Calcineurin-like phosphoesterase domain-containing protein (Flexibacter flexilis DSM 6793), 432 residues
Amino acid sequence: MNRIVILLLVVASVIFLDWYAYQTIKVAVQNWTGVGRLVVQRGYWVLSALLIVFLALITLTRVGVLGQASEITRNIVATAFFGILLTKIFLVLFSAISDVWRVTQYAFEMVQGWISTPTKAATDVAEATPAATDNTITRSEFLAKTGAVVSAMPLVTMGYGILSGAHDYRVHRQKIYLPNLPKEFHGLRVGQLSDIHSGSFFNKTAVKGGVEMLLNEKPDVIFFTGDLVNNYAKEVEDYIRIFDKVKAPLGVYSVLGNHDYSDYVAWDSAEAKRRNLQDLMHAHKLMGWHLLNDEHIFLEQNKEKLAVIGIQNWGAKGNFPKYGNLHKAHAGTEEAPVKLLLSHDPSHWDAQVRKEFKDIDLMMAGHTHGMQFGIETEFFKWSPVQYMYKQWAGLYTEGNQHLYVNRGFGYLGFPGRIGILPEITVFELCKA
């Protein structure tokens, strides 16, 4: 019985808030006439209906009533739900601000009336003052119109982030100066991809275009720093014939990210989960990528060597797994004057690399996606993810050691990007 009462109270509260927010729309269009006013008012209730429908779809899919929806379908439905929800919240806030203003103004006028009685002269002046014209906008109407415009921003911004930002690939070129770099490797061009998340893609042509952008840079070697899929190896099947075009003269080398282990979904058995990981590793092989699982290789030019170390996921933040063994991967690289590390999670750098492996010159990571949301200009960079990760996008240097965090090629959850765009990185290694 108590649950029924609570449910009824929640439903009643939602209905009241929806009606309350609608008052802002009514005030905003009160001077409109014709179809425009009708469309806006009816459109509001259409959004309310869609909010309920999307919530039902999310719930029924989650409990398995509607079966397994595709990753991109779930993401789009969830994005639409939260976009509409934010729109409603903004409308409620502006309705509240408008009402608080009116109550305050009314109270002030009452107090003013108690304190002073208007004189005859003041009354005559007030009567002689022309009435406000029909073009005058009241403060309540101004707040309502402002609220209506502001509340539309979440939906508009999210829509733009999906249609434009999701595949608006940007090439970031970065010179890295290394004092011990052999002259044979001076000018070496290194390409980096990270966080492909193939299960989220919805535009195969755009993805192919991103790969072509990387190849047009003509890198000598290419590194992939993890998260090929969201959860399941089968997600990459439709994209193998795109990513197998990623080739370079000195090879393509890759590592696993936290999502590649499929830790975030329920499996029927440990064996099924193990097979999924094996299938994912096989996908790397099919694409011609050399997967480095706690191991290293040497790049050689005229008898000079450069070590490339690759480890499994190793995270120091939140509950991200520590599968990697850097001591194992590093062993045997002592002879290389320069060592490059591929490690998915940038928190690994401060937590272990800088403390225990001073001879690792450059670590390349991804993982953060720049949260797929933020502001980035030539002189300013901000994203909410920076409050969790000290290093979250771009180049960081401490002494002679460098860390580069790729913003990611794909996307997860929200099927788009706002401000922080998908990245293709091209390094030029230079002797300092």
